[in-house]
Amino acid sequence: MNSSKIKALCDQAVALYLAGRMDEALASVDKAISLEPDYARAWNIHSACLRDMKRLDEALASIDKVVALNSGSSQAWSNRCAVLQDMKRLDEALASVDKAISLQPNYADAWNNRGVVLRELKRLDEALASVDNAISLQTDYADAWNIRSAVLWDMKRLDEALASIDKVVALNTGSPQAWSNRCAVLRDMNRLDEALASVDKAISLQANFADAWNNRGVVLRDLRRLDEALASVDKAISLQPNYVDAWNNRGLVLRYRTRLDEALASFERAVALKPDYADAWANRGYVLSELRRPEEAVVSHSKALAIKPDIEFQFGHYLHAKMKVCDWDRLDDNIGKCAAAIRAAKKLSFHSPC
């Protein structure tokens, strides 16, 4: 075994990985593995490359090889968590990161990963405690501050979310992701001019950043600068043609411009790309109602409710569409649901939200 050659191949793979040259990185680390099949570091790099290439089953197999070679590696267990999270196997991801923490309780990356998984599981108080633990271990940990902001945003604690994302910006002023996330928080605070300035900063740092262009379109839509909004979401889609949220936002902008057939086509593209996208099904239903196609509107609203029963405004629109086609099936039950929801202060307006 030529250990120096194996190390050089792994170092080369890491450099290629960091440069975004994944095929070359994978080829380099494959050579290292062919020379030493039980080299845990090589399998770890192998997994990271495959994860970035979205070859998740293979990435999991590679990180499982690392765990088999070194079951006491907290990093391996934490990396396994990250792969499982990408696969949406969240309970297994949580078990893996908890194993990492049991092996190394002061491992900031693991605590941060734990926060990410718990956020996806909607266990927000626990998620916040985990990222706070990560920050207590590493106060300048920008990614943990970013996740903290996201969790606080989910909790509607917007002032605190803004303070956390501002910390990220202070730690890394050149991060387009941080500036784009700052835009999203400011938008929810209805500080739209500041939100626009933040997302423009993100785009100035990374002109091909599809998320930022989409966020820009959302803010411009809120400002009712609809031509600019449409140009921004179209830019996002040109950069990432299968960008589901951008297609949905494009439909909203076109709906506000009363270009209803085009809006419908955008919502249909969104649900084709993501069939369980409740908001897009709901928006499709609104447009179909406005196009006087109530039977199809009922189907869209019904799909939205099946996916996300508590979606705002949706049950009222569903019931209204059913009445339009004289579908009185279970009317008493449905009116009872409306009454119960109103008592619970849910939004069930029979008018389209604006």
How would you explain this protein's 3D organization?
This protein is mostly helical and 354 residues long. The protein has a domain at 242-354: Tetratricopeptide repeat domain (Serine Threonine Protein Phosphatase 5, Tetratricopeptide repeat). The termini are far apart. It is built from 20 helices and no strands. Helix 2 (22-35) packs antiparallel against helix 3 and helix 7 (108-120) runs parallel beside helix 9. The chain has helices at 3-18, 22-35, 40-52, 56-69, 74-86, 90-103, 108-120, 124-137, 142-154, 158-171, 176-188, 192-205, 210-222, 226-239, 244-256, 260-273, 278-290, 294-307, 314-324, 331-343. Residues 345-354 have low confidence and may be disordered.
Topology record:
Layout: H1 3-18, H2 22-35, H3 40-52, H4 56-69, H5 74-86, H6 90-103, H7 108-120, H8 124-137, H9 142-154, H10 158-171, H11 176-188, H12 192-205, H13 210-222, H14 226-239, H15 244-256, H16 260-273, H17 278-290, H18 294-307, H19 314-324, H20 331-343
Helix pairs in contact: 1-2, 1-3, 2-3, 3-4, 4-5, 5-6, 5-7, 6-7, 7-8, 7-9, 8-9, 9-10, 10-11, 11-12, 11-13, 12-13, 13-14, 13-15, 14-15, 15-16, 15-17, 16-17, 17-18, 17-19, 18-19
Query: What is the radius of gyration computed over CA atoms, rounded to a whole number of angstroms?
Result: 24 Å
Q: Unreliable runs, pLDDT <50, ≥5 residues?
A: 345-354
| Main beta sheet strand tally, sense and closure | none
Count of separate DSSP helical elements: 20
CATH class of one domain: Mainly Alpha
Mean pLDDT over the residues: 90
Distance between the termini: 67 Å
CATH topology of one domain: Serine Threonine Protein Phosphatase 5, Tetratricopeptide repeat
| H and E order | HHHHHHHHHHHHHHHHHHHH
State the helical fraction.
Answer: over 70%
Shape: globular
Q: How many strand units?
A: 0
Architecture (CATH level 2) name of one domain: Alpha Horseshoe
Beta-strand fraction estimate: under 5%
